[in-house]
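EI: anyone free to look at a 171-residue chain?
SC: sure, send it
EI:
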Amino acid sequence: AAALSDLETRHVAARRLLEEQLATAADRLHQVATETQTLHARLHHELVAHQSERERLIESPIFGYATVTESGVIVRCNQTFARMFGFDHAADVPTTEPFAALADHDHVVAQLRAGVTIDRVESVVRRANGSSLPVLTSATLLTPEGDAAPLIERILVDLDERTRIEEQLRI
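SC: here you go
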């Protein structure tokens, strides 16, 4: 009876210790979950702010912006890009077939595939009416998510005015 009583006492003590350890672990788990939730909320807020800033920059009237498939189909463009090529609105730019006005597109794709950086390179593209448009271009191969096809991010700065001024100075 004494041995049984001793075993029960040790069992109760061990059980109490395990329950205390379990309560401590549960408290720590709750604390970690709360901190994780707080960090997640902060990261989400920062991501939304970053996306908003990027959208504001993309819609800037300073440069033409477009994402293009490797085959040359416009996926997205800003208003400035559309106007550079002679369209009134970004929605007027054709998005169902390769955009022939980007006369340098095949070369740009080949350069990006070869690992060449295209950053502020002077080029000539074609407006919708067929006239040439000198531009300063930058291009980046965007890493696709999952099975998506890669896209090319194009940034174009209109150099037409600068070219006209240079020609006038030569005369």
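EI: Helices lie at 2-58, 79-84, 105-113, 160-170.
SC: 👍
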